[in-house]
Amino acid sequence: MKLLAHESHELMAARRRSVLPPSVSRPLKRVGGRASPIPAHVRVTGIALSTDVQADIRRTLGMRLGKFAWSIERVTVRVRDANGPRGGVDQECTVKVVLSGLPSVVVRRRHVSLEVALDEATRAVEQAVWRRVSRRRMKPLHGRSPRHRLVS
Questions:
Q1: Quick check: 117 and 111 in contact, CB under 8 A?
Q2: Per-residue model confidence as pLDDT tens for the chain (152 residues)
Q3: CATH number at residue 73
Q4: Are 75 and 65 in contact (CB under 8 A)?
Q5: What is the number of domains present in the chain?
Q6: Residue 103 belongs to what domain range?
Q7: What is the per-residue DSSP string for 74-137?
Q8: 95 near 59, Cβ under 8 Å?
Q9: Among 46, 87, 94, 146, which residue's CB has the most CB atoms within a 10 Å radius?
């Protein structure tokens, strides 16, 4: 019995750090519950991104956000060229993480290089999700602080 529990723990750990799929079928969402994979939608405007780069974005998100998989419903990444052909600081990356029972986290970063904008956005969204989830853990269960309890 311990072996099965250990195997399931290893499976969950591998899933936490895996590539996020572009979509998850509705039956899998219903059956999977918290164990279902997190869909990561990558939307591109004004930039040509190959499928390899999109897969790399999903892999990075899986590495950074996989540890919060139990509280994430979906992730959307929007990449766009803000100024078009004019140039300048115009590569923009917006990452939106929809959390279960909490407000969504949205992070936007701009940089000349798309890779830097993506890296900064994924780092910032990881920190923001960690802060939001840790706040939920710190709230008391019944809406009262411990000092208001009756002492017998």
A1: yes
A2: 344 444 455 555 555 556 666 655 555 555 555 445 778 888 888 888 888 999 899 999 989 998 888 888 899 999 998 877 676 668 899 999 999 888 999 999 999 888 999 999 999 999 999 999 988 766 655 555 555 555 55
A3: 3.30.160.100
A4: yes
A5: 1
A6: 18-137
A7: EEEEEEEESSGGG-SS-EEEEEEEEETTS--EEEEEEESSHHHHHHHHHHHHHHHHHHHHHHHH
A8: no
A9: 94
At 94, give phi and psi (nearest 5°): -120, 125
Contacts of 6 (CB under 8 A, 6+ apart): none
Pairing of strands 105-111, 91-99: antiparallel
Whether 25 is in a domain gets the answer yes
3-state secondary structure of 59: helix
SS3 content of the chain, % helix, strand, coil (to 5): 50, 20, 30
- Residue 65's identity, in one-letter code, is L
Q: Looking at the domain assignment, is residue 143 inside a domain?
A: no
Which single residue is written with the structure tokens 């994924």? 122
**Residue 128, domain member (yes or no):** yes
The answer to whether residue 74 sits within a structural domain is yes
DSSP 43: E
Residue type, 107: V
